[in-house]
Amino acid sequence: MESPGSPTSSVSTEHTLPVIAPRAGDGAAVEPWVTHIGAESKSTRSTFRELWRAREIVLTLAWRDIKVRYKQTFIGIVWAVLQPFLTMVVFTIIFGKFANFPSQGLPYQVFVYSGLVPWTFFASALSMSAMSVVSNRSLVGKVYFPRLALPLAGVLVPAVDFVFAFGVFFGIVAWFGVAVQPTAPLALVFLFTLAVTAFGTGCTLATLNVRYRDVPYAIPFLIQTWLYLSPVIYATASLPEKWQWVFSLNPATFSITGFRWALTGTPAPSAQELGLGLTTLVVLLVSGLLVYRRFEARFADTI
Amino acid sequence: MVAIRAEGLSKRYVIGEYHAGYETLRESLTRGIRLVLRREHRAPHQEIWAIDDVSFEVAEGEIVGFIGRNGAGKSTLLKVLTRITAPTRGTAEIRGRVGSILEVGTGFHPELTGRENVFLNGSMLGMTRREVRARLPAIVEFSGVEKFIDTPVKRYSSGMYVRLAFAVAAHLDPEVLIIDEVLAVGDHEFQQRCMGRIEEIGRSGRTVLFVSHDMAAVARLCDRSYCLDGGRIILEGPSEEIVAKYLQMMSGAGAEAAWSDIETAPGSELVRLRSARVVDTSGAAVDAIDVRQPVGIELAFTVLRSGKPFFPKIKVTDERGAVAFNALDTHPRWHEPTEPSDYVATAWIPGNLLNEGQMSVDVALASIDAPKFHHHVNLSRLLTFHVQDAGEGDSAKGRFTGQLQGVVRPLLDWTLQRE
User: Fold this and answer.
1) How many CB pairs under 8 A join A and B?
2) Residue A193: CA atoms inside 13 Å, Cβ hemisphere, count?
3) In chain A, whose CA is at the least distance from the CA of B180?
4) Residue A58 CB partners (closer than 8 Å, separation 6+)
5) Which of A231, B123, B353, B364 could lock onto B378 through a cystine, CB 3.0 to 4.6 A?
6) pLDDT of B170 higher than 70
């Protein structure tokens, strides 16, 4: 397989990174704002500084997608709730009742819903950030802003859906008389690790997507497979012990287990799950950022 | 104080076997496998230098125009300056915050209301939300769509859409403003307002780079202009002068040019050019010539009085702006002052010299003012003609049917010895 930027690409430019770093003092600095344009490489620091300066663009892009989404769909917000809720009903019938999956002492409904809420967030965040560059191609070709704003906004958008779906969680818990644990706020930490995983993977996929239009077809398959490799409908504890390390490599494993633990008091993620999962998370994030930043300067030429 | 300094900016695009900008994974994989298994060479790809060694400086507060025909490289240059794409070579430095309008309504979303789009677009153009909020009343007023500001823009007429979009852009407040072709839209009255607004921005000490096909606008707005062709800067100077030269270049581009009135024909009080033509060996004017045939550049001129010795001179350039050659008549007859009379001089370009494609010809009547030329007449790109290959196998590319690179394509003598 070739890298997206191989010299045989149909329209491509030199294998060089651009220097696009406004070296400026913030705000009332004495030094004037100077933009350097060139074909040499740039320092990492400036890009992230620039991204910080462009944080409003990230928020604006996310705000636009949220607005448009709730305007265009007939039942708007209801979707955010209905989707995980109905999935919960289906999974409960199939896996909880027919297949009799163990649910760590919780009603299966509560067990699976506490997995589905973070999972749904993760799945949308992953697919939105993976599609973010291509679906904003008109912007990419016409205006400059730090390109990392696109997958970042893609991760932010599903957070709104999450809030609503999460609200319903408390209704379900109350219905089944399950006590919410005092550790509940820690669930947000595990939501964050899911967001980072989605962002890192999304960056890689978004870069590939610019060159290979197979990516949109691969995403649903990837998400579906990933769902079965994550402890949403089952608990990792019920898997054969010798295979657990494989599942631990998945950052969604410790995240979802941790999310459920924080809220309902089921067993916490093991040290192995945390260790291996966090390692993969870092690998996915770093490789995603490297790939994305390596090719972002050529998005406008290739897209 | 220099606001923009560009040095040798160049941008190369590679056009390969795929025309689209992307390919499917399958195509990449199969191509990769082919390369490995059959050691096939990579598909030959053609390079295009969309801009080629462009250098210029713009002082703070200057309004500078960029003109040139489609494909001359103006848009690529702006994309490089606005950092949408990185240059292949060269550097540029811009002092001050840069705002750019490469299209009207960048990022406008049809489902959102006018007001929402003002925020969205303003943010994309580099304004903070607070800045947009502060300028919202002015923007709405300028656009004249107050009544519909809370209506989704998909219900707007195209005129309303453009007015709102330009209104946002017009209220940008950067130190350097880069504008591409925005005035090509909207009704006349609104265009006038836009022009006025750009003038105002310019007068307030901001630096403006303005690209347009509207020559009148460029001449009026810009202090100075650059004309691009084939990715290079070919003309530079006061806008009115550059615009005039450019228009002459555009209208004159054909196989023939003639001036009926000797008083206004190009030249000096010594000599005036009456006409110039591209001719074949039979003396007929032609637009296209077979690559194997000689082609003549015929200059008819009138010597008004006997003065400084001069001679005819031509320069042939290919469609990408690369100079094929300069040629001057070196015959001793031009060593002495020419007697007043009408003359016709023809330069014969031999067959099998130029490559296929569009050629343009600069014609001149010049004297030598060592070490330079002194031009009595000098018309850039006055004539154009097309070199064609009939593909009969006896031209310089033999039985090859593709395009050979190079400005010239001579048919050489090859020798072969068996040892």
Assistant:
1) 172
2) 23
3) A142
4) A51, A149, A152, A153, A156
5) B364
6) yes
Predicted local confidence at residue B275, as pLDDT: 92
- pLDDT at position B83, please? 87
Q: What is the largest CA-CA distance in chain A?
A: 71
Q: Any idea which residue has 């160049």 for tokens?
A: B10
* B21's tokens: 């900008």
How much is the ipTM here?
Answer: 0.79
Q: Residue B417 contacts by C-beta under 8 Å, 6 or more apart in sequence?
A: none
Query: Dmax of chain B from CA atoms?
Result: 90
Estimate the share of chain B in helix, then strand, then coil, as percent rounded to the nearest 5.
25, 35, 40
The pairing of beta strand B63-67 with beta strand B207-211: parallel
pLDDT of residue A41 exceeding 60, the answer is no
Question: What are the tokens at B33?
Answer: 């496998």
Candidates B49, B59, B148, B113; CA nearest to B405 is B49
* Residues 171 through 190 of chain B touching chain A, CB cutoff 8 Å: 175
Q: Do B80 and B228 contact (CB within 8 A), yes or no?
A: no
DSSP designation for B365: E
Which residues, including other chains, have CB under 8 Å from residue B376's CB and lie 6 or more apart?
Answer: B267, B268, B270, B271, B310, B364, B365, B366, B367
Weakest mean pLDDT among A203-217, A224-238, B40-54 = B40-54
- Lowest mean pLDDT: which of A77-86, A111-120, B399-408? B399-408
Spatial separation of the C-alpha atoms in residues B248 and B409, rounded to whole Å: 30
Alpha carbon of B370 to those of B115, B367, B373: distances in Å?
66, 9, 7
List the 6-35 stretch of B: residues with Cβ below 8 A of A. 9, 11-26, 28-29, 31-32
pLDDT of B250: 65
CB contact under 8 A, B85 and A297: yes
Residue B315 carries which side chain, given as an amino acid letter? K
CB burial of residue B342 (10 Å; 0-12, 13-18, 19+)? exposed
Tens digits of residue pLDDT in B282-329 = 988 888 888 999 999 999 999 999 888 999 999 998 876 678 999 999
> What's the sign of the alpha-carbon dihedral A117, A120, A121, A123?
positive
User: Distance of alpha carbon B124 from its chain centroid, rounded?
Assistant: 28
Where residue B15 falls among pLDDT bands split at 50, 70, 90? low
Amino acid identity of residue B104, one-letter, is V
